[in-house]
Write a structure and sequence with these properties.
single chain; alpha/beta; UDP-n-acetylglucosamine1-carboxyvinyl-transferase, Chain; 2 domains; 4-stranded mixed β-sheet; binds uridine-diphosphate-2(N-acetylglucosaminyl) butyric acid
Length: 427
């Protein structure tokens, strides 16, 4: 079994470099399918979700040339198939972007349903609604989503029922090559939405309004290849290290990030008593006392990101009073609190609310990574805690954090990756 073993406590100091954004890369990689040519991508995170995506693209006929592990040329001149099997798509969530990307180019697309973190119900009704509004027929059967069109997709005025990152990205992908103008209202405003729109505009798309509530897409006949596009830094990876700095009473400089994307996280850390300094492409976070209690209500960007609430819960677990977390996006995002309780945290989670009463110390324990961000929270907790923490199910963490052991080790954590299944060869 793969595990992380952490000996705590450690105080994190020094500098860490943030990788490219997972949730932008997983939209931009399928977006390359919209062009009959090559796209050169830089700052692509080397994480398992991206490696799985590349495998799907190869199965469709893409040719991938790696320049470094974070830079690649994707050549989609010979896409032969618009079918991606459930075996491949169910390994992660964002495989649903293949629908929007491929229906722009093909008349019939068959994509296995997506997988991803277990955060409660994860419907895709809004993705389907948009494709249907644009003129495709969509059927879900036997674990697949089948989208068909008999003529070019046609621009429409669409109002999303919920603010959804995935449905917004899929709408942009599907409408880029549609005939006429598409206006989508009540869209998500996350930095990765803006990055996808910027990438497509660099290919010749006509998308405006990304980052606001309404996006306008004027359909174009075709797109051109891109000679170089660098993916934005990962907001959540940067936020994870910011919280780790504060929770360990450390002092960290977090490089290659966009401080504007981190404002809601910065605001909470300041409430906790941390000092946060912002520079052009880095932030410095330090805390030299017990954190104050504070409350969080997760909401779509620019609100506090749900993907940062488990990490913040670790900080609240050792605060000098009580904190409250209200989760407004995912219905089952508090499963990890049982793991923190094993470590000595005092958390009562009920429905979408968790009350976290600060304790003096956390203690190392065997714990499980319930999902990607819960796993990141376990790492922070293990570094804060006294003694040995063993984290299992770390495949969730490896889906979204590049070189996580190396990055945490370099700033003072005692963390190692262990794989019990690997037989040791004796000479
Ligand atoms: N929703 C619907 N119908 C839909 C789509 C979504 O009701 O058709 C609901 C969901 O149930 C949820 C809310 O709308 O309550 C928001 O879901 P959204 O579609 O925004 O989530 P997503 O696109 O599936 C992305 C990230 C998640 C992140 C959420 C919220 C990717 C690949 N995933 O998911 O990231 O939590 O947005 O910000 O971009 C992670 O990186 O660890 C992660 C889980």
């Amino acid at each position: 079994m793969e595990k992380f073993i952490i000996e705590g406590p450690s105080r994190l100091t020094g500098e860490v470099n943030i990788s490219g954004a997972k949730n932008a890369a997983v939209g931009i990689i399928p977006a390359t399918l919209l062009v009959n040519g090559k796209c050169h991508l830089e700052n692509v995170p080397d994480i398992s979700d991206i490696r799985e995506y590349i495998e799907i693209l190869k199965s469709l006929g893409s040719k991938i040339t790696y320049i470094t592990k974070n830079e690649m040329i994707i050549d989609n001149s010979n896409i032969k198939s618009a079918i991606a099997s459930y075996d491949l798509t169910s390994k992660f969530r964002s495989s649903y972007y293949l629908l929007g990307a491929l229906i722009g180019r093909f008349d019939s697309v068959k994509i296995g349903l997506p997988g991803g973190c277990n955060l409660g119900a994860r419907p895709i009704d809004q993705h389907i609604k948009v494709l249907e509004k644009l003129g495709a027929t969509v059927t879900v059967k036997s674990g697949n989503v089948i989208a068909k069109k008999t003529h070019k997709l046609k621009g429409e005025h669409i109002f999303l029922d919920v603010v959804s990152v995935g449905a917004t990205m899929n709408s942009i992908l599907a409408a880029t090559l549609a005939e006429g103008t598409t206006i989508i209202e009540n869209v998500a405003k996350e930095p990765h939405i803006v990055d996808l729109a910027n990438f497509l505009n660099a290919m010749g798309a006509k998308i405006s309004g990304a980052g606001t509530d309404t996006i306008k897409i004027v359909g174009v006949e075709n797109l051109k290849q891109v000679s170089s596009y660098s993916i934005i830094p990962d907001q959540i990876e940067a936020g994870t290290f910011m919280v780790a700095a504060a929770a360990t009473g450390g002092d960290l400089i977090i490089n290659n990030c966009i401080p504007k994307h981190l404002e809601s996280i910065t605001a909470k850390l300041i409430e906790a008593g941390a000092r946060v300094e912002e520079f052009e492409s880095s932030v410095r976070v330090s805390l030299d006392k017990k954190p104050n209690g504070f409350s969080i209500k997760t909401s779509p960007h620019p609100g506090f990101p749900t993907d940062m609430q488990p990490q913040m819960c670790v900080l609240l677990s050792i605060c000098n009073s009580t904190g409250i977390i209200v989760e407004n996006i995912w219905e089952s995002r508090f499963q990890y609190t049982d793991e923190l309780i094993k470590m000595g945290a005092k958390i009562t989670a009920h429905g979408n609310t968790a009350v976290v009463k600060g304790v003096d110390k956390l203690y190392g324990s065997p714990v499980k990574a319930y999902d990607l961000r819960a796993g990141a929270a376990m790492i922070i907790a293990g570094i804060v805690a006294e003694g040995r923490t063993e984290i299992s199910d770390i495949h969730h963490i490896l889906r979204g954090y590049e070189n996580i052991v190396e990055k945490f080790s370099k700033i003072g954590a005692k963390i190692e990756y262990v794989n019990d299944n690997v037989e040791v060869q004796n000479d």
